Task: structure prediction
Amino acid sequence: MSLSMYQASVPAFLQMLNNLSAILDKAEAHAGNRKVDPEILLNYRLAPDMFPFVRQIQIAADLAKGVVARLAGVEVPKHDDTEKTFADLKARIAKTVTFVQSFKPNDIDGSEGRDISLTLGEHTMSFKGQPYLVHFVLPNFYFHCTTAYDILRHCGVELGKRDFIGTI
Result:
């Protein structure tokens, strides 16, 4: 049995988004227990040329909602990047989870050859559905999820591999 486009996308996005939400709870508790201003964690970055924590979460959510919408051939919902608190980020994740959950296998399966076009800055990128999911979105999604996790670990939030992977 082959892996369908739906199976390769929706369950993975839902698992990681829910894990990120749980990680946010731990980060908020850490800030409260250690009397650390939450803005320090939310704006922390691993290197000067990297996005801060809050942007890592926004991008991960955008990737998840964008890919399922594009594979299903529907408009990608726009979310303003205005999150400033852990609660704001959790709300963005929850909104994204609800959107991703609204898709059924028959909405996405068969999209391997769908033409996908994205504009990133001044560049337009063109893909077929399967390479877009497997070679562009999944690596980017996991990169931003991992970077968010790494930022919090670097800042002393007690997280382990189980927090990142979640329960399977």
